[in-house]
Automatic annotation (TrEMBL), chains A, B:
Organism placement in taxonomy: Eukaryota, Fungi, Fungi incertae sedis, Chytridiomycota, Chytridiomycota incertae sedis
Organism, scientific name: Spizellomyces punctatus (strain DAOM BR117)
Name of the protein in its database record: methylenetetrahydrofolate reductase (NADH)
Entry-linked SUPFAM superfamilies: FAD-linked oxidoreductase
Needed cofactors: FAD
Single GO MF annotation: methylenetetrahydrofolate reductase (NADH) activity
GO CC entries: cytosol
Length: 590, 590
């Protein structure tokens, strides 16, 4: 969606809005960590995110990769930066084509400043001379497809002392077809407000978003303001002087200063704020909290999972529950799908999932971190204890879960820990929800004035002996359905027919029932390959003949993965009754 | 579905089952009344119904019409009788082809008795000589497509005194491919049970359903038993003798006798009973009640409306709410659809409804009955009072509703009457339901262990002045959505987008959410033509320039039809608050 559309909506709803800028990390690990950060920061409700362009290095490819992933995997409306003076025309064409193919509809068109800290940059012969040429070119080539942003310089461009001319350059960019303006960083609010008035006075009537860079460290702040020739009011320098060696104090000051600046601008009628995050999370979050900004409900949780914004997935509004903790893998394994299920999984043709091998399928953390977390388990009981510790938040990750348990699982946390310690190794779960308001802080999603529901769900590995006991228990329970499968693919189930089971759904004014999460056999069979393979990956951390490898490989080879749905969503705890009896416990060690 | 499948299911569930036989009425009105009766008797839960064949007259066309309508409009599993000796081969071919096209999968193959009471019948040269030839022919031509029933004669065939040979004839029919047997009527249970034992003894192992004909009148009973040479035990004749002139007493005796006979057979292990209803309802209902037979839940209400069993509608499980009181019209106006929505109306292409003119669109009752019911209204207030009386069950029908209010509307009956008397002329409604068990006697539908929901719904005609007040009220209500339209098609709505609104849905174990009833604009626009035209039909009952015609025509010309959904299904009565204030009342008369 175009950023201008989102801005219009926010203004119509009379609320403030904000956006985050990231830069492409230099290492693969950095990129993975940025994704995590972006996913977490999604909850802060930015209208969009920017990713900067680094034409000089290989990082422009990384820009494209980060943009595509943000848009398709994390469902963040993404704006890709694009510079022109340092880019050959063909590279610009490729970048625009790829962006469009990925469903990206927003470009920040820049002239091409030297990369921060690098003064010696190469001007490109076949590129454009000015940002306005790039804007014009994009409009010519792509008509109205892209929403185009341009940069504004409240203090004038560093390379041009003539501020009047600078203003005319901006006007030319707008006249060439720009849709909105993001400003260079500044620390003098009055200066910005004056400049904004001048912009309006000469007829610039598109949205102008002030760029806010929270001070993260004294050294960084000095370097940046020197580089950009940013004017820093004396009182800020005075405030910083006594604390300049205390990084924590500087950060805190940076947060307070940004809150103060934004509040002043808010009082002057400014509604949108663009944050230069420097790929950091904390300051931006604290500033938003300080401003009392909360994510608009519809933005934060349109569905219980973050919908991809990739172009081919527009209609997608149902997913199997299995990949809840591995969204990226799900997106990648369904990348080749032409058509995504809309509302009902049953309407989609039986989906073919991509092979797990093709996607760098692996443990998320480096081997040494994994070993530190999981140590060298000697018995099955050691494994059980790791799972139980994860449930109690004493362990940050397991091969199946990169991050701690979701808050929604708080209500079942201790019960989960209990069954894990008995050898029912849970890798996914959700509690029952019987018509919570769609604005509920934990369970809510979708538009306001709706009601959301969940069937209780548990997915766990279980030994073959314990499986028989579980199935016997389940068979006397009128509301429970299950699928169980081992590594070899032997499937056991008590469901009849191939109908998918909706386990999360919502009822909203004027709509059909939305049922975004389901359990069904075809996708479960695709998921089980991945779920079992993670045991193998875990075993590979150890010497082949070691006791740890043997214990894990035995589970990998012989245990079953089972998922259980309690179809009576009005009974919160019934699903755990199948574990109540001691007879279902597997032997503690073998 | 094949009758034998249904019998297998009933036996697997260890329950008794029953079926009803009807004959094609001689007049168009008779046919319409039979449809009403069949629809009501659906609730008695027959596994299937039979319609007899009358090859001699034009009524074989009526047989086909009744079979098709029972199958497609009323969703009754239908078995068509077909006779052979009195039918040319081509006519048999046409009948079988048409039956298959209509989704009928059950044929009762008969030799072709003379029509009841007509001894002089014409044997047809190009037909078959015996029922077994017809069975064989159907198998040859259609393979396993049809489930084929044949007749059994516990007392021997009237034309054949050799009972042993009779039994061999039956065996031949079974060997030719018959799937089940329905017997001729009888009144001596022991005789039937002996005969059934003999059947089993010679290797007939398909289901045998005893045919039960409740005694409806002494004269009819005597004629029938004489014609069929049925043995009547002396005690029955003795019992009837003193009451033979008292029709009511004879009917009551007939019910008691049938209950006694069935109970005896039940004790002997018989599970299925075929009732010759003679197109009458009361006796059959009383017998089933006397036997303590209740309709199996899943059979009685698979969906909140009776699904059509027409072949092309197999996937249909969602319908607009508007035709709730005019199912036949809906089925006919959607007859040309290739594809029916399954689960989500939104997935179907925008449907084109057939014109209302093509389907003998009319008031259901003859003009004199209508005038008797509705009299000669002189003012709008007179009309309001008719609507109010209908709500209070003091009037049996209105042009929009052929039969009294549904029991589910009992909880809102007095409120409905109240708003009708104020000029909000309701023609459709449903109360809110917040998760009733799927076995609930009034609201329940679908498989057991499920929960069903409804959003409160009201549809009514309203004067243009009152409409403005209603819309003002609604606009301050966060949960209410509406569509309003006049005869000319001016549409007003507060809904956004074209999304259909699910107003009835159910949550069941191991399934996606089923949402069988929706409100949306395209079908509402098709429905409004029909709803407005009924005012015209009503006006046509009166002289063109009469006061009654003028009052009704003015409503037809100027009023709006509005439907209102309260999307908060957890609040049962909120929908009526929009009528609470006196300001929304239209003038009582103009």
């Amino acid at each position: 969606m175009k950023i201008t559309k989102k801005i219009e909506k926010a203004l119509a709803e009379e609320r403030c809005f904000w956006s985050f800028e990231y830069f492409p990390p230099k290492t693969e690990t950095g990129v993975i960590n940025l994704y995590d950060r972006m996913e977490r920061m999604y909850a802060l409700g930015p209208e969009f995110i920017d990713v900067t362009w680094n034409a000089g290095g290989s990082s422009s490819d990384v820009t494209m990769q980060v943009c595509t992933t943000a848009q398709s995997v994390y469902g963040l409306e993404t704006c890709m930066h694009l510079t022109c003076t340092n880019m050959p025309r063909e590279k610009i064409d490729i970048a625009l084509r790829d962006a469009k193919a990925a469903g990206i509809q927003n470009i920040l068109a820049l002239r091409g400043d030297p990369p921060r800290g690098q003064e010696n940059w190469t001007k490109c012969e076949t590129g454009f001379s000015y940002a306005r040429d790039l804007v014009k070119y994009i409009r010519e080539e792509y008509g109205d497809y892209f929403c185009i942003g341009v940069a504004g310089y409240p203090e004038g461009h560093t390379e041009n002392p003539d501020k009047e001319e600078d203003m005319q350059h901006l006007k030319a960019k707008v006249d060439a077809g720009a849709n909105y303006i993001v400003t260079q960083l500044f620390y003098d609010v009055d200066l910005f407000l004056d400049w904004e008035k001048q912009c309006r006075a000469i007829g610039i009537d598109i949205p102008i978003l002030p760029g806010i860079m929270p001070i993260q460290s004294y050294g960084g702040f000095k370097r940046m303001t020197t580089l950009c020739k940013t004017f820093v009011p004396k009182e800020i320098l005075d405030d910083l002087e006594p604390i300049k060696d205390d990084d924590k104090a500087v950060k805190e000051y940076g947060v307070k200063l940004a809150v103060k600046m934004c509040n002043t601008m808010k009082d002057a009628g400014i509604r949108g704020f663009h944050f230069y995050t420097l790929n950091l999370e904390r300051s931006t979050r604290l500033i938003l909290e300080g401003l009392g900004f909360v994510a608009p409900i519809e933005l934060a949780r349109p569905l219980p999972w973050n919908p991809s914004l990739a172009k081919n997935r527009e209609k997608e509004n149902v997913r199997p529950i299995f990949w809840k903790n591995r969204t990226r893998s799900y997106i990648l394994r369904t990348e080749a799908w032409d058509d995504f299920p809309n509302g009902r999984w049953g309407d989609a043709r039986s989906p073919a999932f991509g092979e797990i091998d093709g996607y760098g399928f692996n443990l998320k953390y480096p081997a040494d971190e994994c070993l530190q977390m999981w140590n060298h388990p000697q018995t099955e009981k050691d494994i059980f204890n790791l799972f139980a510790k994860y449930c109690m938040n004493e362990l940050n990750a397991l091969p199946w879960s990169d991050s701690p348990l979701y808050p929604e699982s708080d209500v079942i946390r201790t019960r989960l820990a209990d069954i894990n310690s008995k050898g029912f190794l849970t890798i996914n779960s959700q509690p029952a929800v019987d018509g919570a308001p769609s604005t509920h802080p934990i369970y809510g999603w979708g538009p306001k004035n709706g009601f959301v529901y969940q069937k209780a769900y548990l997915e766990f590995f279980v030994s073959p002996e314990a499986l028989d006991n579980i199935i016997t228990k389940v068979s006397s329970h009128p509301y429970i359905t299950y699928y169980a499968v081992n590594k070899q693919g032997d499937l056991r189930t008590n469901t009849q027919g191939d109908s998918p089971n909706a386990v999360t759904w919502g009822v909203f004014p004027g709509q059909e029932i939305i049922q975004p999460t389901i359990v069904e056999s075809v996708s479960f069979m695709a998921w089980k390959d991945e779920a079992f393979e993670l045991w193998n990956k875990w075993a590979c951390l150890y010497e082949p003949e070691s006791q740890s490898a043997k214990v894990i490989q035995n589970i990998w080879d012989t245990w079953f993965l089972i998922n259980i749905v309690d179809n009576n969503f009005k009974d919160e705890h019934a699903i755990f009754t199948i574990f109540d009896d001691g007879t279902t416990s597997p032997p503690a060690s073998r």
